[in-house]
Amino acid sequence: METTLLTVNNVWMMICTGLVFLMHLGFSLLEIGLTRQKNTVNILFKNVFIISIGIILYTVIGFNLMYPGSFIGGVLPDYFIDLFGLSLPENGLGPEYADGGYTYWTDFLFQAMFAATAATIVSGAVAERVKLGSFMIFTIIYVGIIYPIAGSWKWGAGWLDELGFYDFAGSTIVHSVGGWAALIAVWLLGARLGKFKKDGSVGAIPGHNLPFVTAGVFLLWLGWFGFNGGSVLSAEPGATSLVLVTTSIAAASGGLAAFVTSLMKYKQYDLSMFLNGILGGLVGITAGADMMSITDAIVIGAIAGVIIVLGVALLDKLKLDDPVGAIPVHLLCGIWGTLAVGIFGDLAGVGQFLNQLIGVAAVGVFCLISAFIILKVLKSTIGLRVSEEEEREGLDIHEHGMDAYPDFRTNEH
Amino acid sequence: METTLLTVNNVWMMICTGLVFLMHLGFSLLEIGLTRQKNTVNILFKNVFIISIGIILYTVIGFNLMYPGSFIGGVLPDYFIDLFGLSLPENGLGPEYADGGYTYWTDFLFQAMFAATAATIVSGAVAERVKLGSFMIFTIIYVGIIYPIAGSWKWGAGWLDELGFYDFAGSTIVHSVGGWAALIAVWLLGARLGKFKKDGSVGAIPGHNLPFVTAGVFLLWLGWFGFNGGSVLSAEPGATSLVLVTTSIAAASGGLAAFVTSLMKYKQYDLSMFLNGILGGLVGITAGADMMSITDAIVIGAIAGVIIVLGVALLDKLKLDDPVGAIPVHLLCGIWGTLAVGIFGDLAGVGQFLNQLIGVAAVGVFCLISAFIILKVLKSTIGLRVSEEEEREGLDIHEHGMDAYPDFRTNEH
Amino acid sequence: METTLLTVNNVWMMICTGLVFLMHLGFSLLEIGLTRQKNTVNILFKNVFIISIGIILYTVIGFNLMYPGSFIGGVLPDYFIDLFGLSLPENGLGPEYADGGYTYWTDFLFQAMFAATAATIVSGAVAERVKLGSFMIFTIIYVGIIYPIAGSWKWGAGWLDELGFYDFAGSTIVHSVGGWAALIAVWLLGARLGKFKKDGSVGAIPGHNLPFVTAGVFLLWLGWFGFNGGSVLSAEPGATSLVLVTTSIAAASGGLAAFVTSLMKYKQYDLSMFLNGILGGLVGITAGADMMSITDAIVIGAIAGVIIVLGVALLDKLKLDDPVGAIPVHLLCGIWGTLAVGIFGDLAGVGQFLNQLIGVAAVGVFCLISAFIILKVLKSTIGLRVSEEEEREGLDIHEHGMDAYPDFRTNEH
Amino acid sequence: MKKIEAIIRKSKFNEVKEALHDIEVNFFSYWDVTGVGNEKQGHVYRGISYSTSDIQRRYLSIVVSDPFLDRTVEAICKSAYTGNVGDGKIFVSEVIETYRIRTKEKGPDSLK
Amino acid sequence: MKKIEAIIRKSKFNEVKEALHDIEVNFFSYWDVTGVGNEKQGHVYRGISYSTSDIQRRYLSIVVSDPFLDRTVEAICKSAYTGNVGDGKIFVSEVIETYRIRTKEKGPDSLK
Amino acid sequence: MKKIEAIIRKSKFNEVKEALHDIEVNFFSYWDVTGVGNEKQGHVYRGISYSTSDIQRRYLSIVVSDPFLDRTVEAICKSAYTGNVGDGKIFVSEVIETYRIRTKEKGPDSLK
Lengths: 413, 413, 413, 112, 112, 112
Ligand SMILES: Nc1ncnc2c1ncn2[C@@H]1O[C@H](COP(=O)(O)OP(=O)(O)O)[C@@H](O)[C@H]1O
Ligand SMILES: Nc1ncnc2c1ncn2[C@@H]1O[C@H](COP(=O)(O)OP(=O)(O)O)[C@@H](O)[C@H]1O
Ligand SMILES: Nc1ncnc2c1ncn2[C@@H]1O[C@H](COP(=O)(O)OP(=O)(O)O)[C@@H](O)[C@H]1O
Prior knowledge:
By secondary structure, chain A is mainly alpha-helical.
């Protein structure tokens, strides 16, 4: 009996692992679609690198770092007990492990797919101007060390967990962690040439392939079935199916809200906003997907959608250049979703809200500082940004000696 | 024990839900691929809108409308008992609900994904000339009200169900419902400029991206694993696996038949026909996927493939302009598949055939009338069709102020 | 109880079937992406044809041919007992069948999806110059007869199986079978015009769409979850999850190794090599995915990655023109993976290594000879290669009268 | 012989093409260019609305023998006309010699 | 009137465009061409490194009335200059007649 | 100096390019155009077979100093020839002045 249930749970978790993996394709398509064709190869290279190195890093150190069992002073994971590599524990494949929700291997792989996400978020924000080498170094440190430490505070049964901070699938632990770094990176990098004109006006730099953007968002939505559905950590019918429902509803209402808001604000049916709104809704519901009622989900998603539209405009005002909208989607909506757990749903309450605030703040400070240090050092050594000529002519030809679409006649922007 | 089986069943149903969701990406790629690049953003916008609003509408009213429990005069669903919103019933998450096939939430989401399909079918047929606003209104009414009512007749245990009409996964209840509306819409809208020349000749308007078309069809085929496989409403091994087999075989033979027919008819290896043939086979098997033998599946698929090729030619003769072949695929093959249940497989027989006929006719009349009313009203008020100039220059730039591929040099057609 | 476990196992196997199906989309995108746009429709047509005919052929004869139960002289499958068509055996849907791992129908469909792969591998290698008709004939014979016979030796409990040859998911039985034929085909066909210049230099013929290549590889990676995960032939938690982990890790390290090697060798961040390296890692781990430790997986993948880079260079030296790198990926890494089972992991040992060698050799000889005969006959009758004019202007316009991207301005190469 | 270069609206191309055929001008080449001029076009992208004067246009290059010149210019002017800013321009210049590669014909004959 | 054809680096286009606007040359057409010349560009594809002299460039076609000629050429020369091989070329030729389709204006007026 | 515009089959481009290099014409620009002429091409789409006279061609623009004119025309005529309808055309026109942006050279020197 028990083993049968374990088998079911494990099947579900493996599927969710596959779906989260698929999100990396979704992100890749989203990011290239919202940028210019002359940088496509570069962005794809970054994304393929992130998932590959991410898995290896998580194998070598990340997994143990994130689930250390014990802590030093409750904050620093005690990674002195076998930090490196994976070692199958007693009963790691039996019903005793993780209440029979999945095997040790599934556990690892599911978490590994999550880990890479943090860097992918940054990759989109710094697109079209970041130096490939510097970004790769940043990725290694951030995915290999920073993300697992932050994660351990909550999912590693660390102090935030003890505090009562709640983050179901990672609005803060995953999305904000990426979002904060994106914010720092965008600020240290500066905007793309032509984004903010001398005359103070804001230039539009249209993405080169909207079908890819749309396909990317559809795949991300589907991937979120695994991202949130898998965070139940078993196939428990009630919980998993509720999570899928709240997730889909929040996505839908997020998209609709963003579309309506941008229609009223700009008198245009803006597809890119609609799509970003869907992502906003997904990130927003992630922190409390298992705690919300249908109505809560609609409201949380809708507010996330509005945040997206206003957030994009805000960034332009602040002269921060985020080509794919990673900051509104992952940072702003990540924060919103985390706080929403204190406002809506089963956990709603002042105490919870404060815990959520603490969690957001703690993770924020930690990520801001570490991202700042890493990127600042890189900037003042090998440099963060490509030459102006390279940016003009495109990173593909300069860093890769390759065109993404050699058979097509292209326009330059 | 029971709960374990429920867990398995529910896992399978959630996967199928995800696969049906993926079909919406498949449809999007298919539709943009078979049309011109200047209308790409517009078509994507429609598809993203359809799935988003579809889920919300189904939450607010559709689900209750379709499964009303009781009927007024056996025809009109008695939607006076809590019509609006979702409310988890007693045991909605336990083995008692739906014979332990899935939870209430899974039930809802799976059906919600189906609902949006009906409008997507129409979206393809009216592409490149329909007014965005009018189409959105149509979608809301059709998906929100018409589809659920028609569906309730069969799947809501309505009169067609009592009659003995059989439609396993929706050749009629889903595909024809979309197909009939597509037929009306195409007729009221009129053909695209340049499709039917003054000299009576038929103009070809090649789709702009065949790789997208192919990817779309592959995704739809995969999605059908969920569409038909999920319609078993449990993970019962024998039934689900048989359904997957008949579905795949019908798809394959549909494609091959269409390819051979068009090769003989036009002396060309026509990829677009091959792909449409696959879809024809899929729609054709949908009504009886669980009732057919392997040989039946091959035959049903093959005939569907032939129907596609002849159907496309027929529409051109009738001067009906259906850019993506939605009518041959979803209407003609939908009808064929429904009738086939009376000809092949376990239910074959005169009585059954007549029941199938009644079902096809009843749903047809209902959809034709309601679609006609909705569209006629829209036409005589805000109008259905964009201006000639807008059609010439493309809906993307006029309705969205956006290009789908701003970095590429394009040809105009 | 038992039936519940069967249900779980069957659900997993059906999902894996779907994932393997998805690989055909992955291959399609990979192949068109690495070739020129003027041959896109042709390549897509071949891929759609392969999966369609593959399923039908496997229904009609392949399945029985591959799992004959008995052998003539232990080598030739005894296909005189009901060779044609599928017939559900006693208990074919019950726990008795295949130790309750899946139903007869799932069994068939899962294997059918594998079968088509062999031809897909060849399709990539002969792209841009092969005659469509000849290729279709080749596919029918190779997928319909050669692949099942070779497969039966191992998976049909044939002599290789008795010998102790091990090939978990088909490094040899699937990938090499395709790879050997690709080698022969490339050799008999000759290189594309402009690939090898008169002056002895090697010309580069860049693929036309790197985003498609990347998407294809992501989908293939995901598909491999089903390809290897499904080869456990049940949902046994420990085995399936281990397989997913080794598979993903080998893919990651294969990609990274190829990227680093090509960076050192060519001083370039070559995306196409990175992606090919991932595929190499996947093929490499396939033969022993269930036998390897984490470290083994990293090493096997890494070596596969290096093989890719050197293999591509080697082919250029040998003046063999393989546009998509099918031979390095599927043949070389297929051989490597098979031998690796004798070097690493639970089975490692001299005896095993020799058995692996015998398996590789036996299958190699068989495939080389049969592929040679089929292709030689085709060449000396209807011919294998299109006319020079057709190759210059593209197969799309000549064989299909269609452009893949009619709305885009294209460059010719 | 004269070379007539016409820059027109893409949406007017079919009409122009027909008009040319009506006056037996059946040989020409065309491609798409971006035009900078008086016309402006409004765009919106992610909340930034901008107007660009870079508009895609179709560029026709027609080489005709002198007697054809006037009627060709006239035909284009008529068929490409909308009256709104952005209708485009026509430029005429001298061509010294022309060849038809297939037949080695020179001069006016090569344009027939 | 004169037709000025300039073949420049794509990456220099914006500067050239601004330079033209500064001297009130607000009408022109441009498109992308492949240029063959002295400049070479290195590529790598799947381990084959090759250098090509076929480089994408931007082709500007500007018709101006004679008084505008010199300053236009000068403006382009200045703004397109980098000093490296591949800066491009400018060609000047005679235009006999010009028309503005919208207004039927002829000659210099049609260029204002 | 003269400007030679040649409209050729895409499939003949490489031969033409080599032929030009053989006679030391190493500078030119080219792009793809759609040609309307005698040649027709058959297409089929979803059961509708249609033939179009709009065929993609390659457009070469070569500016040479006068002594180069004849051999260049000749080289193109030879290398682009197939004898079938659709081989294309060559047009020659006068160029008043040319500049090399990089060196400010004028006239024939700028073409070397
Ligand atoms: N002097 C010129 N040289 C080259 N192209 C020109 C010139 N003047 C106009 N054009 C082309 O003609 C197009 C239409 O001109 P525009 O000024 O927009 O409208 P109108 O001609 O009605 O004033 C421009 O987009 C540009 O492509
Ligand atoms: N005679 C010519 N005819 C047409 N285009 C030319 C000619 N000479 C040069 N070009 C164009 O100018 C571009 C730059 O010329 P190139 O020789 O590379 O640099 P530079 O002019 O600095 O020597 C070439 O790529 C080509 O497009
Ligand atoms: N008068 C012309 N002006 C511009 N382009 C022309 C002209 N005549 C022919 N062409 C170009 O030459 C191409 C080949 O001409 P076509 O008539 O098809 O073959 P042929 O020259 O062998 O008769 C045409 O497609 C067109 O692009």
